[in-house]
């Protein structure tokens, strides 16, 4: 079983996770657990789709980078809690939602090649959907003698 505690950073809540069997006291060590968005990745006929779970993140706070050299997709951003949600709090009874910066480095299938000029992404219902169009696979051409 896992227990959750919280700590404060200037104007930010930080999500802290503590194992239930871990004793609290002057020697206690708390470990911050940053947001690591869950992903689905699947291949369609003409594209690789990467679906990233990002509820509560504003689209203007999302950045996507494709590295063709390392064959990785980097999704980074920040989930911000509004000042209106924080103001007036007297006491917090339960806090599990992480607010702050996050990033997820996603290894792409090494056998696939992408059309980097035609990548697209859209955000809907808390999901970022990145479409990486596939380039045709290299074909081996048989040389015939005449």
Automatic annotation (TrEMBL):
Task: Tell me the classification of the organism that encodes this protein.
Answer: Bacteria, Bacillati, Armatimonadota, Chthonomonadia, Chthonomonadales
Q: Which UniProt keywords apply?
A: Stress response
In Swiss-Prot or TrEMBL terms, this protein is called Molecular chaperone (Small heat shock protein)
Which stretches make up the SHSP domain? 30-146
An example of a Pfam family matching this protein is HSP20
What does the similarity note say?
Belongs to the small heat shock protein (HSP20) family.
